[in-house]
Structure formats: structure tokens, C-alpha cells
Amino acid sequence: MDKLLEISSIQGTDFVGLDVAQLTGVKKVLGAFAKKVVEDSKANLIRGNHIASDSLNASIKPLPVQEIGGGYMVEIQMNDYWKFVNEGVRGAKSGAKAQGSPFQYKTKMPPRQSIEEWITNKGINPGGTRGNRFEARASLAGVIQRRIYNFGTPRTLFLDKALPESLMKALTEDVAEAFGKSISISIKV
Fold first, then answer.
1. Beta strands 75-78; 61-62: pairing state
2. CATH 3.30.70 domain position(s) in the chain
3. pLDDT tens series, the chain, 189 aa
4. Burial letters for 22-42: b for 16+ Cβ neighbours within 10 Å, e otherwise?
5. Measured between alpha carbons, how far is 40 from 47 in angstroms, rounded to an integer?
6. What would the CATH number be for the domain defined by 2-87+157-188?
7. How many Cα atoms occupy the beta-carbon half-sphere of 108 within 13 Å?
8. Gyration radius of the chain's alpha carbons
């Protein structure tokens, strides 16, 4: 599992002297923010039809808000390959599907077994007679594997779309209101 999002610090007036109600309110605001990001990320995957096995979608979960060194940490975790789905992967021959992605197929192809499972999960009939259906599925998986290797996978930006500037502004305002003080928030993805 990979950590998807971490609010690494909340800067502003020192947390010392804040009462328990204020601290609890901030945790609720941060927890609600994490829940919203999780819901929107999952909805973006579903809406964009970017679900192959539902493994990624099912793995997206917020972790409990933690108090660390006078600040708070919000984490969202998911399967490690989320970055490839979000950013896409440029192909060995063409990067048109994932322009700007830091990832590219160069020497290693995507795993054929995963593609065969995808074919089965989608109910795709690869053709062939009863006796050679497994061979037909393996053959189709090979064709798809080479196509993905050569032309890549598209950017979905399912996470980026779940973190619009308006949500970040609302988070800052909600946390400031819970504290009753002026703050700034830094986020790392």
C-alpha cells in the first residue's frame, strides 16, 4: 500500500493553549476532508470507467488523523500502482495517451497474467473452439500486451480531479474556523 496524500503541516498560531474542543474540531474537519478525497477519487475511477478488477478502487482508504509534533497528519492509502493509473504510462513507440507522464514502457511489458484476468473479468470471448479457448485468451492477451507496451495507457487524473483548488481553499477555511485562527496548509502527494 502506498500513501496517497499527506497533509504534512498546518502552519499558523502555535497549537499550545488550544482547548480540546478546538483540537477535536480540527480532527473532524481533516477527517471529513480525507473522506471527501477518497469518495471523489473512487467516483472518478468509476465515472471514467477506469476499473479493471476493482482492486485499486477497493484499496483507497483514509487513515485516522494523527497529531504529530504540534501538527496533524492526514493520510490516504491505496495500492502502490495508483500513480500509473493517475498519470498514465507512455508507450515505447508513442506517448500520446499519457503526455507529460513521468512513466514510460521501455524494456518491460505489462504483465500478461493481469491482462488475461482482465479479459476474463470483462467477459470478453476471445473466440476459439472449446478445446483451445485458453490458447485464444492467451493470444488475445499477448496482442493487448504489445499494444499497451507500444502505445501506453491513458492518464486518468482520478486523484488530481479529486483535489481541486476549491477543495483546498475550503479545507484551509474550515481548519481556520475550527481553530479560530489564521493558518496555511501544505500538502504533499
1. antiparallel
2. 2-87+157-188
3. 554 455 544 544 444 444 444 456 778 888 888 899 999 999 999 999 888 788 899 999 988 888 777 677 888 899 999 999 999 999 999 999 999 999 999 999 999 998 998 898 888 888 766 668 888 889 999 999 999 999 999 999 999 999 898 988 888 888 777 766 655 566 666
4. eeebbbebbeebbebbbebbb
5. 10
6. 3.30.70
7. 5
8. 21
